[in-house]
Write a structure and sequence with these properties.
The chain is globular. Helices cover 42% and strands 20% of the residues. Strands 3-2-4-5-6 form a 5-stranded parallel sheet, with helices on both faces. Strands 7-8-9-11-10 form a 5-stranded mixed sheet, with helices on both faces. A hairpin with a 2-residue loop joins strand 17 and strand 18. By secondary structure, the protein is of the alpha/beta class. The chain contains 24 helices and 18 strands.
Length: 582
């Protein structure tokens, strides 16, 4: 399905000013201006993130002082403190940061992560029962608990101390009678952009300040970086400073657990960046939780012994291989079912008995890429269907699911991704209602929207110019890797590459310069191989190194035939239309 391009506006005078005063390439200056960083002072500040300047006072987080009071008292009493986390990487890293911080402050602290399938999310009764087997006196949650009112009451009733730290939206189930710290409890709190691990890091900062180690928290910015990037937090302000510091720490002297992960993922010989963490270390650490037990990832992040770290990282690589195999198998099953039932409808729903919970979202994304419509994948367990969905274009899948909420037991998510639970016998009606909702939407809503930071000429993309893009890092949510548009270029040397021949390799040429390009997991290779028209190419750009030779590479996102101007066509004689189009 062809994409729509939205080219961001950038004031030409501001672009020229940044070019001249800061010596920036035009397309990088245009990127900054298009993102609202439009004067030299703002650019200098943006390009030099600083924890000293940008990290805010921890006490502005609602309830953090109360949680710190309770934990400080627990440490001084000599309580056994159990740090209760979540099974995704934000939760695992938050558990690591607070456990390590408490131990450094002299506390007896035990990390705990629920079992995903057996115990579920947050303070479930099953998880509390197992947590109590460790004999804690005090439980503190990280990255969970804000909606556990009844469960928190049960913990207190059992005679245990309890404090909650979280970063999720508070609803009407906020625990009562215990300290609760969550920046989102105040709509105006500027620290609400933090991940769960960011909140945990603030807590370590406060406790360290009270207990004689005010700089202790700075030792854990690398762990906090992992959770912040993994949880797709906005890459601005505090988070930008935090991630910059954490990445610098990993590049300068990675601790054994991170060095082992970089080695097993094949990224040890490359500089660490937020972008490559997302494709190397983070998927492996998340794999353990996806497969049901995050303990292996937690054990790895908690060890400082290099041999043990290598052993655990190798084991985690095997778990990740297992996850990929299950994902590939389920993908084939789901695609086969989709091929049978898809007949042009605007939403796709597939389901099966006992499909693996941990890879549903990834497989749903593959269906979206294949069919170009929002897709949901359900696993059926008895009389219940639990699904994960992904959207396309500008379609709000959350709103679509919400329109059928009377059929559902639970649902949540956002525009692009949802989780849904409903009675299995309601699946056909849910699918009918979902398709009816989609049918009322305009066709354009289903076309992917590619936001363009700037148009470029291929001759601008020199090695020196492209290398300067690194100044804009770290990239992430709200500050993605820039996307550029090269207009009216020709494709040459087109071929299918990769073991499955599902990646499209080509050269882009405008007659003056040539840049090599690749589009991964390309769904329409056959038609692109036959393209002989002029195209508009949208891409990220990076420096590729192969056998010691560096070159500029366009990481293609979309290729669309260049279209003639509609206003020009309206002015032409009909017999001239074909000539102009050619």
């Amino acid at each position: 399905m062809s994409a729509q391009f939205k080219i961001k506006a950038a004031d030409p005078a501001s672009v020229v000013r940044l070019e001249r005063e800061l010596g920036l390439p035009r397309f990088i200056a245009a990127t900054l201006v298009a993102r609202g960083i439009d004067n030299p002072a703002a650019v200098h500040r943006f390009l030099a993130p600083s924890l000293e300047r940008d990290w805010l006072d921890p006490y502005i987080i609602p309830g953090l002082s109360d949680v710190a009071d309770a934990l400080e008292a627990a440490v001084k009493r000599g309580d056994h403190i159990l740090v209760f986390g979540d099974f995704d990487l934000d939760g695992i890293s938050a558990t690591t940061v607070l456990t390590r911080g408490l131990r450094a402050l002299g506390a007896q602290a035990t990390p705990f992560i629920p079992l995903r399938f057996e115990e579920g999310y947050a303070l479930s009764q099953a998880a509390i029962t197992r947590a109590c087997s460790f004999g804690p006196d005090f439980i503190v949650t990280v990255d969970c608990g804000i909606a556990c009112k009844a469960e928190a009451a049960a913990v207190v009733e059992a005679g245990l101390g309890l404090a909650i730290t979280d970063h999720h939206e508070p609803v009407d189930l906020v625990p009562e009678g215990v300290p609760v710290a969550d920046p989102k409890c105040d709509a105006n709190c500027p620290s609400s952009i933090l991940a769960g691990v960011g909140v945990a890091l603030k807590l370590v900062q406060v406790l360290g300040g009270r207990l004689g180690q005010p700089h202790l928290w700075r030792d854990f910015t690398d762990f906090a970086t992992l959770g912040t990037v993994a949880d797709l937090m906005p890459m601005r302000d505090e988070n930008r400073a935090l991630v910059s510091d954490g990445i610098a720490r990993m590049n300068a002297a990675p601790r054994p657990c991170i060095a082992a992960l970089l080695a097993t993922s094949g990224a040890a010989d490359k500089p660490v960046s937020a972008t490559n963490l997302s494709f190397s270390v983070i998927p492996r650490l998340n794999a353990a939780g996806r497969m049901g037990d995050a303990q292996l990832a937690l054990d790895l992040l908690m060890t400082d012994d290099f041999e043990e770290a290598n052993r655990l990282a190798t084991k985690l690589e095997s778990v990740n291989d297992q996850r990929r195999a299950i994902e590939a198998e389920l993908s084939e099953i789901a695609k086969a079912q989709a091929a049978e039932i898809y007949h042009g409808q605007r939403a796709l729903v597939v389901s099966g008995e006992s499909w693996h919970e941990g890879v549903k979202g990834i497989v749903a994304s593959r269906l979206v890429n294949t069919y170009g419509v929002p897709s949901l994948l359900f696993t059926i367990d008895g009389d219940e269907a639990r699904g994960s969905g992904r959207s396309v274009g500008q379609v709000s899948l959350f709103s679509a699911v919400e329109s059928a909420s009377d059929l559902l037991r639970r649902f949540g998510g956002h525009d692009a991704a949802v989780g849904v639970t409903l009675p299995a016998d309601k699946l056909p009606e849910f699918e009918r209602r979902l398709c009816a909702y989609m049918d009322a939407l305009p066709e354009g809503a289903f076309h992917p929207l590619v936001e363009i930071d700037s148009c470029v000429s291929l001759d601008e993309l020199t090695l020196d110019n492209v290398a300067q893009l690194d100044k804009l890092a770290p990239f992430g949510q709200e500050h993605p890797v820039p996307v550029y548009l090269a207009r009216d270029v020709m494709l040459a040397n087109c071929r299918a590459v990769g073991a499955e021949k599902n990646h499209f390799s080509c050269s882009l040429s405008d007659g003056r310069a040539t840049v090599s390009g690749i589009m991964f997991h390309c769904s329409d290779i056959e038609s692109l191989m036959r393209t002989d028209s002029v195209v508009n190419a949208a891409f990220e750009v990076q420096i590729d190194e192969w056998r010691g030779r560096k070159s500029v590479k366009a990481m293609l996102q979309s290729l669309a035939p260049a279209r003639t101007c509609g206003a020009l066509e309206a002015c032409l004689n009909p017999e001239n239309l074909s000539f102009v189009a050619d």
